[in-house]
Design goal:
By secondary structure, this protein is mainly β. It is built from one helix and 52 strands. The chain has a domain of 279 residues: Immunoglobulin-like (Sandwich), CATH 2.60.40. 43% of the residues are buried.
């Protein structure tokens, strides 16, 4: 499977409109009609000029000089309004350009002999001619002939407090749209296509006012291609979460939010150059990261299978002999080997069993107490060549927390009065001390207390008064620079909160404005003194929205419109965040994917599968 990633980009924003050039004004005798009292027009055109080589839009733009001019047959709309009380604009007039002159203006200076500085005469004009106040949208497929040019809008406005000596009104036309210039570089650029996602394409033109009002019509735009550069004309707007692009190479689509565009205001008459470097990656070292993924898929009869993808190479995770329906829960990579922990069902009695795989080879995790027939493994790490796994075993409603080191079982001690407990994550300090995160309950359905075991002693972690710890959600533990970090989730007053305890001090993760029902953390790592958590937020409609947090600050992960999404696993490499997960529109059509540095890569569902999810991801150099 060949994929590509966006590995570098730049957004140089230039906020200056290039200098305009005024047309050579025709002599008075050449003005149609020859009436010196008639208002006559001379028009100039400005460009989106930032760099040479942009294709022309409305009228004719010289790429080398930035000068603009009109062509024979061009028609503009002209509105004239005396800016005094209780005065309306004259009916919109259409003027046609021919051989250096504009014909069709019926307004005369005699009608406005009393104009002044306080009550000037305002001229507004638009190109192309459009009558009245009308709602418009730019063309969505600007790659088709004429559509890019058709999407542009030129506008001019000038006020006069007295009649010019020659009676000629000089109108400087400027572009009211913004222009995106997206240049692709790298090996994959020649085979790539670009779609601009979820931008506002609508606007309302007011020819007797001061231009346009941006509307609220959202659409996708296929830009005009010139070599490996893509141009699009769009209304000025706030980009909100950022400029969203879908870039396709050889049938594989990656979605990307351009850095530096979050909350960016696109202005009229400005070209915004964006440079993206695309490198192919299929295990060849370009880009220089190896990608390890662990996931599961189901077929149309709901049989479940586990697998890994290492640089795109598929390996089935087959259960130990006699097992069915494998599930991966966590992954570690050490010494170039892939370690996955999870579970399966015994094909004879249907009981849940725990196991782990090393490069696809399965090993069953044993529990000596025969009455405890259900076994679960949740977390794995490799330290100094030893394999550490956290989990639990049970014989009914009562769960016993435990961990395995190289297959040897250790049962954790329960505090007095505890009815049930579970170990959910494991960490090992440099000196060999083992930390195991989990929870305990003081009765069936009783109080749930989160915490961790150190030296076989349970350390409780505080919750707000009235909060209920969510034992079905993920817990993660990490030890870094002698600090202990634990991630968990609780519910309070019908809202869900994800939090991180640092040496016992709890901090809630920020909830996005739309996430009225809260958020859930699913994975955590600590790097460079920062805490990274992935998971999802919960809007009022319960359509989960994948996201991640850095030191508690939330960033949404992009997904197809109308889809739910989750970020199930997170890591950091060279300061770049990667998240594994899924997006879906129903519980039987999960689509596996991962996000790297903001770009989403959709993965193929293994052959025979109908739905799949990535549960763990790891990147290494």
């Amino acid at each position: 499977m060949k994929t590509f990633r966006i590995i570098s980009l730049a957004l140089p924003i230039v906020l200056a409109l290039a200098a305009c050039s005024k047309e050579e004004l025709p002599a008075e005798g050449t003005i149609p009609g020859g009436d010196s009292d008639k208002i006559r027009i001379a028009a100039t055109v400005g460009d989106f000029t930032v760099e040479d080589g942009a294709p022309g839009t409305r009228a004719t733009i010289n790429d080398d000089t930035g000068k603009g001019s009109f062509e024979n047959g061009d028609v503009i709309g002209l509105s004239v309004k005396w800016m005094k009380e209780n005065t309306t604009a004259e009916p919109l007039q259409s003027l046609t350009y021919s051989n250096g002159s504009w014909s069709g203006c019926t307004t005369t200076w005699d009608n406005y002999a009393e104009i002044s500085q306080e009550k000037p005469l305002r001229f507004t004009a638009c190109y192309p001619y459009r009558k009245g106040t009308v709602n418009y949208t730019v063309q969505t497929d600007q790659s088709q002939s004429g559509n890019y040019e058709e999407s542009d809008l030129l506008f001019a406005m000038k006020e006069y407090a007295a009649k010019p000596q020659d009676g000629i009104i000089e109108l400087n036309f400027v572009h009211k749209m913004a222009c995106l210039k997206i240049t692709l570089q790298g090996k994959a650029a020649a085979d790539a296509s670009v779609v601009i996602k979820a931008v506002n394409i609508g606007y309302t033109m007011r020819p007797d006012g001061d231009g346009i009002d941006t509307g609220h019509v959202v659409g996708y735009i296929t830009p005009k291609r010139v070599g490996n550069t893509f141009y699009a004309v769009i209304p000025p707007q706030d980009l909100g979460i950022g400029l969203q692009l879908a870039i396709t190479v050889n049938g594989k689509t990656t979605e990307h939010i351009v850095k530096g565009t979050q909350g960016k205001e696109l202005e009229s008459g400005v070209q915004y150059p964006i440079e993206l470097t695309l490198n192919e990656g299929s295990g060849s070292g370009d880009p220089p990261y190896s990608t390890y993924l662990a996931g599961w898929y189901i077929n149309n009869t709901y049989d479940q299978f586990a697998y890994t993808l290492v640089n795109g190479a598929y390996t089935a995770l087959t259960p130990p002999e006699g097992g069915v329906s494998a599930t991966p829960n966590a992954m570690a990579v050490s010494g170039g080997k892939t370690y996955v922990v999870g579970g399966y069902f015994d094909g004879n009695d249907g009981n849940a069993k725990a196991c782990y795989w090393v490069d696809g080879a399965a090993t069953k995790l044993e529990v000596s107490e025969q009455e405890y027939i259900y076994h679960y493994a949740e977390s794995i790490l490799v330290s100094d060549g030893s394999i550490y796994i956290a989990g639990r075993y049970s014989g009914g409603p009562k769960n016993i927390p435990c961990y395995w080191v190289d297959g040897a079982l250790t049962t954790l001690t329960l505090p007095d009065g505890v009815y049930s407990s579970a170990a959910k994550s494991i960490a090992v300090r440099d000196d060999g001390k083992i930390y195991v995160a989990g929870y305990h309950m003081n009765g069936s359905g009783g109080m749930r207390t989160p915490g961790y075991w150190l030296d076989d002693t349970f350390v409780s972690l505080p919750l707000p008064d009235g909060a209920v710890f969510q034992i079905s959600e993920a817990m993660k533990i990490a030890v870094s620079d002698n600090k202990v970090y634990v991630m968990g989730t609780y519910k309070l007053n019908s809202q869900t909160y994800s939090c991180v305890w640092t040496d016992g001090t709890r901090s809630e993760l920020a909830i996005a404005g739309s996430a009225t029902l809260g958020a859930v953390g699913q994975s955590m790592t600590v790097a460079g003194g920062k805490v990274y958590v992935s998971g999802y937020s919960i809007p009022s409609n319960n359509n989960f929205k994948g996201c991640y947090w850095i030191d508690g600050i939330c960033t949404d992960l992009n997904a197809p419109d109308g889809s739910w999404s989750q970020g199930t696993s997170i890591g950091v490499i060279n300061g770049k965040v990667y998240v594994g997960g899924t997006h879906y529109t129903g519980f039987d059509n999960y689509k596996p994917c991962y996000w790297f540095d903001g770009a989403r890569t959709d993965l193929d569902i293994p052959t025979g599968g109908t739905s799949a999810m990535i549960e763990a991801i790891y990147l290494s150099e």
